[in-house]
Write a structure and sequence with these properties.
By secondary structure, the protein is an alpha+beta fold. The protein is built from four helices and eight strands; from the N terminus they run E-H-E-E-H-E-E-H-E-E-E-H. The longest helix is centred in the N-terminal third of the chain and has 18 residues, at 14-31.
């Protein structure tokens, strides 16, 4: 299941957000050895203070095993403010209709099953670009990949459309709802 957490719900989902920052620590610091800010086995950066929307992947045990951060490109973004060299000569995207996805992380065991055989802009590792391509959601590169620390990074656009959603659902064999919505019980 997927869980969407908006800024107005941060307090209600504080434990899920803490778990997400721990996942990011395990993936970005421990596994990928990126130079990231860490404290107490949690990874955060200044963009987390800009009230992003978070999308979490919850496992069958309800633990967070994946995440992505979403920010509108009308304000500060990692592409504009941290990785502008990935744009080559292109103008930084800035539109209410274009959102940046960042801190995309999956914390799945190596034995996890693999899949057979609007716009969002993102900066990602070229390894994630291959995963997106396998999911039938190819990245349209903005510029050429460049070395950033110990990873090869690339910036690009992802098509946000009903057709893209149908392709991804087909590829992932997803038939039912994937977004978890808590049931609120009101008392009289």
């Amino acid at each position: 299941m997927m869980q969407l957490i908006t800024p107005d719900c941060y307090a209600e989902f504080a434990s899920e957000l803490k778990e997400m920052h721990g996942l990011r620590y395990r993936v970005f610091k421990k596994r990928l050895d990126w130079e990231v800010q860490t404290e107490g086995e949690m990874e955060t950066d200044p963009f987390d203070s800009l009230n992003p929307v978070y999308l979490l992947l919850k496992g069958s045990d309800w633990r967070t095993c994946g995440c992505v951060r979403l920010l509108p490109t009308t304000g500060p973004t990692m592409l504009r403010d941290t990785f502008p060299t990935l744009l080559d000569e292109m103008v930084v995207p800035a539109s209410a209709d274009i959102w940046e996805s960042s801190r995309f992380a999956l914390d799945l065991p190596a034995t996890a099953p693999k899949a057979a055989g609007g716009l969002a802009v993102t900066v990602t590792d070229t390894r994630i670009e291959r995963i997106l391509r396998l999911a039938t959601w190819p990245l349209s590169r903005i510029g050429q990949p460049k070395q950033v620390g110990n990873t090869e990074a690339v910036a690009g656009f992802l098509d946000i459309s009903y057709a893209s959603l149908l392709r991804i659902r087909w590829r992932g064999r997803l038939n039912g709802p994937v977004l978890w919505q808590p049931v609120l019980i009101q008392s009289a």
